[in-house]
Each structure stands twice: as structure tokens, then as C-alpha cells.
From TrEMBL:
GO terms for biological process: carbohydrate catabolic process; small molecule metabolic process. This is 1-phosphofructokinase. It comes from Fusobacterium pseudoperiodonticum. It catalyses: beta-D-fructose 1-phosphate + ATP = beta-D-fructose 1,6-bisphosphate + ADP + H(+). The lineage of its organism: Bacteria, Fusobacteriati, Fusobacteriota, Fusobacteriia, Fusobacteriales. One of its GO terms (cellular component) is cytosol. The keyword Kinase applies.
Amino acid sequence: MKGELMIYSVTLNPSIDFIVRVKDFQIGETNRAYEDNFFAGGKGIMVSKLLKNVGTECVNLGFLGGFTGAFIEKNLKKLNIPSDFVTVEENTRINVKLKTEEETEINCPGPKISEKEKEEFLDKIRKIKRDDFVILSGSVPSNLGNDFYINIIEILNENSVKFTLDSSGETFKKSLKYKPFLIKPNKDELKEYAKREFKDNKEIIDYVRTNLVGMAENVIISLGGEGALYIAKDFSLFAQPFKAKENVVNTVGAGDSVVAGFVNYMLKENDVEKAFRFAVACGTATSFSEDIGELEFIEEISKKLVIEREHYGN
């Protein structure tokens, strides 16, 4: 990457992801897991893990507390991923991911953040340099309020720091005023924003070209198992769903991997089509991995992806 550029990944509400695998899960009965794993989780942490796997350093910012926070800190150190978290009094949360016939998640609310802890975090944001890059993603501790991301973005905007926000609802809408480097709503989030249904990809592309292109530098629409779209004013790219012999292993972190992969490639090479291919490969590799996709697997998938390009007139 150019010069001393540093990527920061903000995880305001990290978690330990406790992944439990159960066969023939029965509600109301005693179920026995055949496997369980603990991972450092939270969307921003997933971003930093993907970046580490592709050879890019990323500093984690956010809040950690208690024995659960210590576990995450230790886990990141083991992975050689740098962090600069604010230490808080209450415990970092544990989220439960139940892997059975149907995947089920229980996400906990997380710690309350004091005024002093909040200001300590915002001071770290104020020190980020103009040429650096910030990736914001995941939930916000409840007592900080829905506009806390916007408070962060306003500071970044004042200091001319580029950012991407992976969020939805009102926060997503308000962030567009500051022209994010990348937005990546999924199909459901796009429906929520547009307050309408989309019967096919053409309707999505037409809507996004008219209403979202120009409000962000780059727009990716995640279609889940139906692929992904990159949409610009004069062209679109469609990544066909990846066909694999194996079943999807883990959807946790797949979207975060897309964001990290795209940002990483664009900051290095500034080539939209190659960055989109790499991003989709990152997300796909993660969905077929226990944790986050590894570089060798990402590169293997990238070569096999089918990307269709369509041009539009003025």
C-alpha cells in the first residue's frame, strides 16, 4: 500500500463467538454437542482477521472488558493482529451460534459504556491520519445510541479520512451524507432502504443506479446464495453463485470478508473489477471455512468465479 497508510477496523461491540454443532436438535430436550469452538468475534474483528490472512495489517479499535475481553485480546495477539481497544468495566458479550439443520444465533447486548470510556475511544478516532482508512461495522452498545456511528463519521469527515460503514436502517441512510468509500447492503437491507420489493437483478441495478450510485464511491449488493452485484453509473458486474461440492460451513464473517477484500484490493491496486472478484472470493472462502478464509483458498476460488459485465449508455 502507498506510504504509511494504515487500516483501522472498528468493533464497538465485540464478542466471543461460541459455535456449537448439534445433530438432530430438539427444542425442549437435552441436546449433546458433537463439537464446539470459541472464536474472537464481532464484524470488525472478522475484517481484521481476513486482512491478516491476505497479508495486510489492520489495527482493531473498540471496547473490551472482563474475562471475555481478555480472551479476545489474547486470541488476537496469538494471530499477530494489533489492537488498541478501550478497556471497559463490564464484560464483553458472548454470542452463541447453533449449527444444526437450521442455523440459529443468539446475540447478546454487550456492556454499557461510560462517558469516560466513550471519550477515550473518540480520542483514538481523532488521532487517525488523513491518509489512513477506517472500516466501521457491527452493532453499537445500547447505551451509546443509534447515532454513535454518525458521531465517528463526522470526526473522520472533518479530518478527511476515508471510511466504509457496514450497517443498515437509519444509520445507513444518515451515513450517505458523508459519501462512504463503499456501501454493501444485502438484498433485504436494500428492500428496507427502498421500501419496495425487487423481482430480479435488473430492478435492483436500475434502482441502485438511480438512487445510490454517487452517494458512495462504490456500491456492492450482496445477494446471499444468488451471488453479488457491483453497480456503477455506466456498468454493473454480476458474480454468479459459486458452485462447490461442499455445503456452506459458516456464514459468520462472509459479508465482513467481502468488505475487507474489496477495500484491501482497491487500496493496493485501484482496479474495480479485480477488487470485486477478490472481494467475492474472500466472502465465498469464508462461507466454506470454519472461521475466516485463507489466502490460498481465496485465490483458488477467485480463478473459478464467473463475473458478467454489463455496460449502460448515458
